[in-house]
């Protein structure tokens, strides 16, 4: 019986009433069709130069040609045809197509890995203007209240969290631009904002903490004696480690605080390496291999003690063997 009721209702809607999907669902010329949109997020795939998301878009509108009298068809069912549009007796059409969207958004990584990104999904009609359809946010209701869904819907049962990003805000907004005429398809649109924040734990453990420890340990190279053969190896190993950490970073096109800190540590360690080379070179010099230049002797024995307010040792008096030399006198 239910199958016969469905067949009779479909014949009534599409054959007897001669339904034409090419015509807009308006009773009179000049009427506007209200289309309600809602976005359901299922998964955030990745974030590179673009943001890929798996979503479902709720489309809801009323088509008076698809309405029927419930008393004439008392079966409990909803009509669905090949485009997966659900129709209720009032003519309300509900279409829920799944899709994968790629939203291009400007990525600002100045405060990596504590950055957040704002990726937007903008929906508008390319074929109909604001006088033909009016784009609205979906409305929901319960037994007592009715409200507008001004956010991206997330179903906890079907949503899969991303391992690198977390969603912190997901508002939705209907925009109308008064400076653009209603005859243009750019007069109105609906924008869904997806604000995501990076999970920094991985980068803190693998980049920030090692760099801080390396910069701390690099200063201890001065406590190693100059005769130690591992002094240069000790500090050069830090420089190699920092180079590998830099290669693991993401390709960055803008200024980055973490990147600047990493470059500062690399320059600091490089200076320490050069300093150690100079110290070792001076330490292993001997009178038989090198001759102290005149400017070196003057700098370390005369100028540097004066700058450091050091007193120079007095010259020792000459020692005489036997009787003291007799001084010459003007007298006799």
UniProtKB/TrEMBL annotation:
Topology of this chain in the membrane: Multi-pass membrane protein
Signal sequence range: none
Domain (Neurotransmitter-gated ion-channel transmembrane) ranges: 260-320
Name by which UniProt lists this protein: Cholinergic receptor, nicotinic, delta (muscle)
Swiss-Prot/TrEMBL keywords: Membrane, Transmembrane, Transmembrane helix
Database matches in InterPro entries: Neur_chan_lig-bd, Neur_chan_lig-bd_sf, Neur_channel, Neuro-gated_channel_TM_sf, Neuro_actylchol_rec, Neurotrans-gated_channel_TM, Neurotransmitter_ion_chnl_CS
Example of a GO MF term: extracellular ligand-gated monoatomic ion channel activity
Alphabetized Pfam families for the sequence: Neur_chan_LBD, Neur_chan_memb
Compartment(s) of residence: Membrane
Top-rank taxon: Eukaryota
């Amino acid at each position: 019986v239910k199958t016969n009721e469905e067949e009779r209702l479909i014949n009534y809607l599409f054959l007897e009433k001669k339904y034409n999907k090419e015509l807009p669902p308006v009773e009179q010329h000049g009427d506007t069709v209200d289309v309600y949109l809602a976005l359901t997020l299922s998964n955030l795939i990745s974030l590179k130069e673009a943001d890929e998301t798996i979503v479902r878009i709720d489309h809801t509108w009323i088509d008076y040609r698809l309405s029927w009298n419930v008393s004439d068809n008392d079966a409990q069912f909803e009509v669905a045809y090949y485009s997966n549009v659900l129709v209720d007796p009032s003519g309300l059409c509900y279409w829920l197509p799944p899709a994968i969207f790629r939203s291009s958004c400007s990525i600002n990584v100045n405060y990596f890995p504590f950055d957040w990104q704002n990726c937007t999904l903008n929906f508008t009609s390319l074929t109909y203007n604001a006088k033909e359809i009016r784009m609205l946010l979906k409305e929901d209701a319960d037994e007592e209240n009715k409200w507008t869904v001004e956010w991206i819907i997330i179903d906890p049962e079907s949503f899969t969290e991303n391992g690198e990003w977390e969603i912190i805000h997901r508002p939705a907004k209907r925009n109308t631009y008064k400076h653009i005429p209603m005859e243009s398809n750019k007069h109105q649109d609906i924008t869904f904002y997806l604000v995501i924040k990076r999970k920094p734990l991985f980068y803190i453990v693998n980049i920030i903490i090692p760099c801080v420890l390396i910069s701390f340990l690099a200063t201890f190279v001065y406590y190693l004696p100059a005769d130690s053969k591992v002094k240069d190896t000790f500090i050069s190993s830090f420089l190699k480690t920092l180079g590998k950490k830099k290669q693991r970073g993401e390709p960055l096109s803008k200024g980055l605080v973490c990147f600047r800190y990493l470059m500062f540590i690399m320059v600091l360690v490089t200076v320490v390496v050069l300093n150690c080379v100079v110290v070792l070179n001076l330490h292993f010099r001997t009178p038989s291999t090198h001759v102290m230049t005149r400017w070196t002797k003057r700098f370390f024995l005369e100028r540097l003690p004066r700058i450091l307010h050091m007193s120079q040792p007095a010259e020792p008096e000459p020692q005489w063997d036997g009787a003291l030399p007799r001084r010459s006198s003007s007298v006799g």
